Amino acid sequence: MKKTILSILLSTVAMVGMAQEGYVPAPENVKARQEFADYKLGIFLHWGIYSQYAQGEWYLQNANLDRNEYAKAADAFYPHRFNAEKWVAAFKDAGAKYITFTSRHHDGFSMWNTKQSDYNIVQSTPYGKDIIAQLADACHKQDISLHLYYSHIDWMREDYPWGRTGLNVGKDRTKIDWPHYYSFMNNQLTELLTNYGKIGAIWFDGYWDHDSDPTPFDWQLGEQYALIHKLQPGCLVGNNHHINPFPGEDIQIFERDLPGENTAGWNTSEISKLPLETCETMNGMWGYKVADQNYKSTDDLIRLLVNTAGKGANLLINIGPQANGELPAIALDRLKGLGEWMRTYGETIYGTTGGDLKNQPWGATTRKGNKLFVHITNLQSSVLALPLNGKVAKVLSFLDKKPIPYHSMNKGITLELDDMPKVVDYVIEIEFK
Ligand code: GLC
Question: pTM of this prediction?
């Protein structure tokens, strides 16, 4: 028992040491947080040389490959169909307000012209062009925010301190050099935040690689977060570490679960006051996987978006682009479907907060000013009781603004929904006095 208390104490002390202590977000950052919270829909992109193997982004680790053999894929990477403008136009058309792109994943390959290592898109591929530069230009032109995923893990570099992954890829353990690796990362982050204009967020991943270390691992996050905020005060910092946010972080991330839920098994953190984001795959894998055609339907994605907004969070929905630079046709179809829906119902999603009621088996609610949007995605009866506070002025069908019959209760109202149309999300607008 004593030992447990001691280890909890020690890890708490270590965590405090790691955080950006006394962090007060700059005014630009506070503004960016609010903008982010209003975005509600983002597109996550996992793209790298792993796309050529078409087995997802963990192939190097999962197949126990030798890292130098794996890296030969770089010399064949030629995404001749990549068109940043077209990608971004498709994301915008889907109603997304930001994209989060893998600048460097766990396999250590950098998708920009980094001076810190030749293992990058410009030096090591026949393609030879900077992907981040093209995306940044397209995003800035089309006014969509560019966020960058950045892996803390590196399965390629020998200076990265071994955690619990990437142990069988042929590295020499004696070459671990944390200070060297740490400054490599900070130099890379400096490039990303200096050479590509405004970056909306840095999205870290891989913290959990060291969650089983015998003594707590110090990632020195505080200094790293401070560097980011110094270079771009409005840049949001998020970390997919699955635990409560540290000072210095500006958004809270939930992987494959809505805030407060834990079907994935690792989401035990509490919901903070920071803007929230849930990331999820369209099919099953983040990076392109040839065998995984099990895509969620457009209706499933709409319901997911609605339930995420009902929790007050953004949905960051992932696509794994193909090695040739195209987005998979099914993903494009889903983007189109989302866009059509958002053009009609966006008002009930963008700029909203989580609604007055918790998510229900029948759907979710979102709130904007004196309006509550009731999203009915799965109603089993024709009567719906809504235990609301406040005096109701109007109850309308969102789409055609026709009044919906209702009765007042002691607390809230009961809706009569005899003629409810069969749509993926029947939205009712309640205006309060
Ligand atoms: C997990 C996976 C990683 C993926 C991330 C996205 O951390 O390890 O491959 O990029 O989830 O949320």
Answer: 0.95
